[in-house]
Amino acid sequence: MDKGAIMSPRTIHVGNLSSGVTTEVLRQIFGCIGKIVDVRVATDGRYGFVDFAENEAATASLAMNGTEVCGGAIRVQRATQPRLFSNQA
User: Fold this and answer.
1) How far apart are CA 54 and CA 71, in angstroms?
2) 71 burial via Cβ count (<10 Å: 0-12, 13-18, 19+)
3) What is the mean pLDDT of the chain?
4) Among 17, 19, 48, 67, which residue's Cβ finds the most Cβ atoms within 10 Å?
C-alpha cells in the first residue's frame, strides 16, 4: 500500500486518547455524527479508528479535532495507513 494512501474515506484516526477512552466511549462520541460501522482502540489505548457508513459523517467528524475527551484533547484526522492491533473494550 502506498504510504500516503487513504485507508477509506470513511475511516478516521483518533489520536491522543486518555486512558479512560474505550471503544464504547468513541462509539458514543462519534455516533452523534453518523452511523458507525466499527470502532477499534489500540491495545496501548493511545489511538483508535472509527469507520463510518457514510463519507459525509467521516468528513463532519474532523470538526471534533481538539475536543476534550476524558481529560485530554483528541486529534482527529483521516486515516492514512492500516495499523495492526487487537481490539480493546
Assistant:
1) 29
2) exposed
3) 87
4) 48
- What is d(CA 19, CA 26) in angstroms, rounded to the nearest whole number? 12
Q: Which triple of cell numbers denotes residue 58?
A: 467521516
Q: Is 69 helix (H, G, I), strand (E, B) or coil?
A: strand
Distance of CA 88 to the CA centre of its chain: 13
Three cell numbers written together for 9: 474515506
Q: Is 68 helix (H, G, I), strand (E, B) or coil?
A: strand
Give the model confidence (pLDDT) of 9-18 as tens digits: 899 999 999 9
Helix (H, G, I), strand (E, B) or coil at 72: strand
For 23-52, the DSSP string reads HHHHHHHHHTTS-EEEEEE-TTSSEEEEEE
